[in-house]
Amino acid sequence: MSIPVYPPKPVAGDRVAVLSPSFAGPAVFPRPHELGLERLVKEFGLEPVEYPSTRRAATPRERAADIHAAFADPAVKAVFSTIGGDDQITVLPHLDRELIRANPKPFFGMSDNTSLLMYLWNTGIVGYHGGTVMTVLGRPGAVHPFSADSLRAALFGSQEYELRPAPEFRTIDQDWREADTWTTEPPMEPGTGWGWHQADRVVEGVSWGGCLEILAWQLMADSEVQRDPAAYEGCVLMLETSEELPPATEVFRTLRNMGERGLLARFPALLMGRPKTWSFERPLDAGARARYAAEQREAVLRATAAYAPEAMVVFDVDFGHTDPQLVLPYGGTVRVDGPARRVSVRY
């Protein structure tokens, strides 16, 4: 497997595609979508371009057609997903790999967009895990400065960027359907820093992974996961979990199954995202949230001890289903310096 290459970056004034490759979130929650589009213009100097399925539920084939149109248009310099979802895996069979390979562009997405990021990785293109329009750009109050700095560097830059622990983070979500949500800043808690395990070496490699639940689906479908585990030798694994709050047993079993497939041992380092510990379906209290996070950490350590005992692990990295959010290159270079307790990426 060849190392993915970085696509050309946009500059201020360029057009960027805004797509809904999974859930048509803007059709249900127009407020954060409109706010995200407005901030793309005013704060990032870009011209968003929507497509037929951006604001309506569409078939997998229709969504694939919009992806093709966005990548094939020479005037479009980057592609943003509006939000995640749960069925992007059904879109991938309709994609034209050669068309996308011939027109590489930065793609920003997370959650269910892990499927498309995997597809780009296998196509030889670096993608970007994070930066969705509705959740990051359409955040109530304002785009968090921590998120904005990372997104801006990923969007416009190619330099090395040092990741930092977020100074604060949000646990409890606001209801997008409530008017009060849009008049106040989200409630935040003080940052807790990162947790390091076996931080006794320096690892540098290209990144792979994404949302653990979507990765599990890809493993079951045997779709975008390379059959030869050697394809991931020396890569940096990045994993995070969603607002569905998968139990620690599910996290362990997914990692165990990756181990049985011969995958887990290929990764000398793992960046584990700060877990989401609250949702509208499971509004856990503070004690239950702490237990959930601790149980997830124990599950990760149990799996790596069994299948990747030499691996270095960094916990609570602020990417994925987090606020604020770091954008991570998907297939780009990540350097994990254990002794210095530093993580840097190349955008």
List keywords for this structure.
six-stranded mixed β-sheet, globular, Rossmann fold, Glucose Oxidase, domain 1, 2 domains, single chain, 10 helices, alpha/beta, eight-stranded mixed β-sheet, about 350 residues
Question: How would you describe the overall organization of this protein?
Answer:
With about 350 residues, the chain is of the alpha/beta class. The protein has 2 domains: about 15-160, 3-Layer(aba) Sandwich (Rossmann fold), CATH 3.40.50.10740; about 160-345, LD-carboxypeptidase A C-terminal domain-like (Glucose Oxidase, domain 1), CATH 3.50.30. It contains 10 helices and 16 strands. The strands form 3 sheets. It has an 8-stranded mixed β-sheet. A 6-stranded mixed β-sheet has the order 2-1-3-4-5-14, sandwiched between helices. Strand 10 (about 200-210), helix 8 and strand 11 (about 235-240) form a beta-alpha-beta unit. The protein is globular and about 50 Å long.
